[in-house]
Design goal:
This protein has about 325 residues and is an alpha+beta fold. The protein contains nine helices and twelve strands.
């Protein structure tokens, strides 16, 4: 074979490699599913939900199915749910959602020395913030209701847990960019449809029994966050000149009386953040800060009423709350 023949073979070999390489590259690019951002809003568990995510397909049907499954476990509005059946004194098998909730509730109860307690429902009802009419509260009634431990209410932890559940569903279906907001509890990851970190607000605590006011106290930008807020500024009433808030201290049986208006917690899960936010609202600012600073991977943003001016607010952050 002369030199000219060998040169032609080398040229054709190079062209073949380029062509095949192009085919392989083209096939590789074609195999990637196209994605887009979806947004779903609605009403669940007595509150709103707002879910945004990037995925290769619309996952709304699966999201709604998962929310129904969660409702069938922990909703006290559902008479057939696991928690309702237990409250009716009937035996039932604990499902995975209930078991996870109960374990975290017990953990936060221990950490807060009883400030968080899912058996507080009878006391909440007695003060007029639950499912029954307000009762005539006496020390004897409070003492008797504090002994009732067989009525459970997961409302102070379940919204956060539901956010974790939906976030897990989105991840399992290939989503790396999502925001799940259920009643103000939030789990987010990645970026929004503009390629920027997600932005969420902490509501300014203003007396508002209508729930219509929503002025933002502070905006947080993040690409990875589990956050929950509890406050005393929407559910309250005045009785004989005394302000009664819906946050009941399980250790005393009475509504809390301190200057902490709202507690926002960032933690490793939204379920844990939700429970800790309620515990902090019971504890008050100083004890709440001591609790949060003692916990790893947990931060807080507390808003307190000022002493001199009725409308003044004091913000207290834990050392690691930087967003």
């Amino acid at each position: 074979m002369n030199e000219e023949s060998r040169r032609k073979i080398r040229v054709w070999t190079a062209l073949l490699v380029l062509v095949l390489g192009g085919v392989v590259l083209f096939a590789f690019r074609d195999s990637r599913p196209e994605t887009r951002y979806y947004r779903h809003q609605g009403y669940v568990f007595g509150t709103y939900y707002n879910i945004r995510y990037e995925a290769a397909e619309d996952l709304e049907e699966r999201i709604l199915q998962r929310l129904d499954e969660f409702d069938a476990s922990l909703s006290t509005f559902n008479p057939h749910s696991t928690i309702s059946v237990l409250n009716q004194g009937r035996d039932t098998v604990w499902d995975a959602y209930f078991s996870a909730m109960y374990a975290t509730a017990q953990e936060v109860n221990n950490l807060s020395h009883g400030a968080f307690d899912i058996t507080v429902a009878p006391l909440v009802n007695a003060w007029g913030f639950g499912f029954t009419n307000r009762e005539t509260v006496t020390p004897e009634l409070i003492d008797s209701l504090r002994k009732v431990k067989n009525v459970l209410d997961a409302s102070a932890i379940a919204k956060g847990q539901a956010c974790d559940v939906i976030a897990e569903l989105l991840r399992d279906n290939g989503s790396d960019n999502y925001l799940v907001d259920i009643g103000g509890e939030v789990v987010l990851h990645g970026h929004n449809d503009q390629g920027e970190p997600w932005r969420v607000g902490i509501t300014k605590p203003e007396d508002d029994t209508t729930g219509q006011k929503a002025e933002i106290q502070e905006v947080i930008a993040s690409t990875d966050l589990c956050m929950a807020t509890s406050g005393n500024y929407r559910q309250f009433y005045y009785e004989n000149g005394i302000r009664r808030s819906h946050t009941i201290d399980p250790r005393t049986g009475y509504p809390v009386n301190h200057n902490l208006l709202s507690a926002t917690i960032v933690a490793t899960s939204c379920m844990r953040a939700d429970a800790l936010a309620t515990a902090c609202m019971v504890l008050g600012a100083d004890s709440a800060m001591m609790l949060i600073e003692s916990l790893p991977d947990t931060e807080c943003y507390l808003i307190c009423a000022g002493e001199k001016e009725a409308a003044s607010l004091i913000v207290i952050r834990s050392k690691g709350f930087h967003f």
